[in-house]
Amino acid sequence: MSGTSRLSTRARTATSVLAAAGLVGAALTALPAWAGGNADALSVQYRTSATGATADQAEPWFQVTNTGSTTVPLSTVTVRYYFRADAAGTTYRFACSWAVKGCANITGTFGTLANPTATADRYLEIGFTAGAGSLAPGQSTGDMQLRFYRSDWQTLRQSDDYSFNGSQTSYASWDKVTLQKSGAVVWGTAPGGSTPTPTPTSTSTPTPTPTQTTGPVGAALFDDFSYTSSSDAAIAQHGWTVKSGQGGPGVSGATWSPQDVTFVADGATNKVMNLRLTTDGTAAGTKETEIQTAARKFKNGTYAARVRFDDTPTGGPDGDHVNQTFFTFTPLNAPMDLSYSEQDFEYLPNGGWGETQNIMYETSWETYNPDPWNAVNAHGQQYGSLDGWHDLQITIDNSNITYFIDGNQVAQHGEPYLPETPQWIDFNHWLIDLAGQTSSTSRSYDEQVDYVYFAKDTVLTPAQVRAQVAAYRTAGTSFTDTVPAS
Prior knowledge:
By secondary structure, the chain is mainly beta.
């Protein structure tokens, strides 16, 4: 991707990701107004993070709370949000940005009302898979950060939507949505006081569960980064490009420095790649690093890397808004280009984009428009330090993009975020802005990479990835690439 496109993506990311900041694990502070009595009582709390009369996307966020006395399987529960379509032929798409129960366990489908009103002729129905589990008495689903948008990417109007309340920016009980348990309404009032029709049975063919391999994989890339320097001829021969010059992402006027991509000993026999970021608090005094595959030939399969993140500088004051990454992407050839895609691990050890603490983002991109800004993405996030070595993994099949850290699943995103075209693999280490620390004392941060691995069209578990890497090392293989060109 060009520097300009990459800068637009990163510089604008705050618009989409910061809407969720500070809300993880938000608690219900008061008992819902409708609580009590019924053994199967349930209630819905609502808020929105898109408050305008018009918006790029509607963002109804929900919590469902069990206010009864019996445990309720969430697979028997649906919630309906009612709205007025912008035009008769307008279609919409649903997305889940983040959820305590996991976005993979939440579904969203659209329906049409048999008896439309002035404020509603459609609804978004939220459902749960069996993987969402059950709610015991007094329990809540926690945050469900949901959104929907027009399929043609145009601005939507929500001020005339029955279920919308732009002033409700904190969770509170909301009876202009309905909740159904096993098809019967147990919360809320539908538009016009009508009873929602039962959810139709889906006739679509279910997506098959991907098969995980247990034996040797086929086409694969493995690189142990056993090079001498960034000018080592083997780097280009093995299909890597080390970035130089200027351009995004990050601070305008900063320089990408190949000399700061080095290969250092880590133990008696192993080498690791070191990506150093250095700054003195000025753009001219900031040097960043990036290495990327020259070929776009990676799409479905398993991506993995062992990466060491760095919370503190080697000298000088701490606090710079650095970004330490492992990601794969395609270029944005035009605004809202549907062939664009990107899947990111981005670690911000000192915060940034409005965050003030350590945070890791896993972001899956469908597309975006740089001006006026409109992003179509979903993300996971975790607060806390990740200083030190970590195993990062992304698996992509025809159903999901799944992110793992140290063998634990941390995020999963489905359509519309799956990549449509082959991608590059990339690591970079850059400075988001100059606002984190303004000292003129030079300081450096190090992001290190032990290896990178890709298995084409194969879904591997984290344990299987470790076994494949161990097999390469046992055989003395420091590099192999059998992934065919696209």
